[in-house]
Amino acid sequence: YFILGAVRWRAGRFLEERLRIREELVKLVQPERGDKVLDVGTGGGLLAIGFAKAAEDVRAVGIDLWVPGGGGTSLKTAKRNAEIEGVADRVEFRKADARSLPYPDDCFDVVVAGFVLHMIYKNRDRAFEEMIRVLKPGGKLAAIEPPKGFGWKINEDLKKKLEGFGLRNVEFIPMKINYPKERNVYVIYGEKRTKK
Q1: Is the pLDDT of residue 1 over 50?
Q2: Strands (DSSP E) along 31-182, which ranges?
Q3: How much is the average pLDDT of 169-195?
Q4: How does pLDDT run across 106-158, given as a tens digit for each residue?
Q5: Where are the alpha helices (DSSP H) in the chain?
Q6: What is the Cα gyration radius of the chain?
Q7: I need a labelling partner for 64 at 20 to 30 A (CA). Which of 47, 98, 101, 156 fits?
Q8: Is 56 helix (H, G, I), strand (E, B) or coil?
Q9: Cis peptide preceding 180, ω within 30 of 0
Q10: Beta bridge mates, 108
Q11: Distance between alpha carbon 95 and the CA centroid of its chain, in Å?
Q12: Nearest to 38 by CA among 93, 115, 84
C-alpha cells in the first residue's frame, strides 16, 4: 500500500510539474487569437493542448512517431487528453517525423517542442530545418531541452546553426524544473526571419 501511495503521489507531482512547465512556455510565447501551432514530438499532447487553450481560436497540431517504449504515450492517449481538456475540436494529432514534416513552407505561427530534439540522434539538424521551414516569417520557435546530452549541447555553436537555418533573436532561456529531480533546462527560443 505504501509503495502504491508513493507511486500515485509521484505521478501527481509529475503532472503538476508538467502543467507548470507548459504554462511557463505559453507565457513566454504568448500565442495570439487565431494562431496555428505545431507541437513536435507531442507525446500525450500536453503542449498542443495547452496552446489550444491559451487564446481564442488557436488551432494546434501535434505530431509524433509514438514509437513503442518512447515515453508510454500514443495517438489514442493524445486524442483522449484533448477531449478531457475540452479542446478536441481545436487540436489535431497525426503520426509524422520531425525530420520530414508533411506541411508546406510558412504554415505555422508557432512551433514548439518539449524534451524531444535532444533525443533525435540521426539528422537532428534536419529536424531544426524542418521546424523553421514550416514557420511563417516572424513566427516563433520554442523548444524545452536539457543543456547537454549524447551529441547534444546548448551553446554558441547551436545558436549560430539556428541563425543559419533562418532564426533571429535566438536565446537560450534557463528554466528550473523540479521533477523527477531539481535541474536546469533551457527554452531554445527564436523567431523566423522575415523575407526581404
Answers
A1: no
A2: 36-40, 59-64, 91-95, 108-114, 135-145, 148-149, 152-153, 167-177
A3: 92
A4: 999 999 999 999 999 899 999 999 999 999 999 999 999 999 988 889 999 99
A5: 2-29, 46-54, 75-84, 124-133, 156-164
A6: 16
A7: 156
A8: coil
A9: yes
A10: 135
A11: 15
A12: 93
131 touches 174 (CB < 8 A): no
Dig out the grid coordinates for 165 from the structure. 537555418
Residue identified by cell 509514438 is 66
The pLDDT tens digits for 77-120 are 999 999 999 999 999 999 999 999 999 999 999 999 999 999 99
What mean pLDDT, rounded, does the chain reach?
Answer: 91
Nearest to 41 by CA among 109, 104, 124: 124
117 strand-pairing partners: none
Cα–Cα distance, 62 to 66 (Å, whole number): 11
Residue 6, pLDDT above cutoff 50? no
Position of cell 533571429?
168
**Residue 70: pLDDT band by 50, 70, 90 thresholds?**
low
Cα distance from N-terminal residue to C-terminal residue, the chain:
64
Given the C-alpha cell 523575407, which residue does it identify? Answer: 195
93 Cβ neighbours under 8 A, 6+ residues apart: 42, 45, 48, 61, 62, 63, 64, 75, 78, 79, 82
Query: Per-residue pLDDT for 60 more than 90?
Result: yes
